[in-house]
Amino acid sequence: MYFDVSTNLTTTLSFSTASISNKIEHHKMITKMKTKEQDKDFLKNLGTRIRTLRIKAGYSSQETFSYECQIPRAQYARYEKGSNITFLSLQKIVKFHKLTWKDFFNEGFDD
């Protein structure tokens, strides 16, 4: 009986490569899910920080504050709820409160 070692070895290597490839893809998927969850948490913290600063500055109304910051009211409300925010809008808010970036991110955010 003739047994082709090269075919058996190739099949084994192919199977191992496929298995490793599947594990890598699984790891990428898990990492992507964790990243999305971290992004969500960050935006929620950002919204909480923005809201806290607004209230601390004496603005009970999002509408009044957003008007004075020159940010559309509906968009500002979404920021406080944790929606994605543009850098320019965040910069307006930070400048309005006369904070540095370091001071802004010093509270309400984990490492």
Kindly report the average pLDDT value. Answer: 85
* Overall outline: elongated
Give the uncertain stretches in residue-range form: none
Q: How many extended strands?
A: 0
Oligomer class: single chain
Count the DSSP helices: 5
Question: What fraction of the residues are assigned to beta strands by DSSP?
Answer: under 5%
Q: Which class of the domain at 32-104 in CATH terms? A: Mainly Alpha
| Euclidean distance between termini CA atoms | 65 Å
**Which structural class should the secondary elements be placed in?**
mainly alpha
Gross CATH architecture of the domain at 32-104: Orthogonal Bundle
- CATH topology of the domain at 32-104: the name is 434 Repressor (Amino-terminal Domain)
Helix content: over 70%
Largest sheet: none
Briefly, what is this?
By secondary structure, the chain is mainly α. Helix content is 76%, strand content 0%.
Overview of the molecule:
The protein is 76% helix and 0% strand. With 111 residues, the chain is mainly α. It has a domain at 32-104: lambda repressor-like DNA-binding domains (434 Repressor (Amino-terminal Domain), Orthogonal Bundle), CATH 1.10.260.40. The radius of gyration is 25 Å and the shape is elongated. The mean pLDDT is 85.
Question: What key attributes describe this structure?
Answer:
mainly alpha; elongated; 434 Repressor (Amino-terminal Domain); 111 residues; single chain
Produce the secondary structure layout:
Blueprint: H1 5-56, H2 62-69, H3 73-80, H4 87-96, H5 101-106
Helix pairs in contact: 2-3
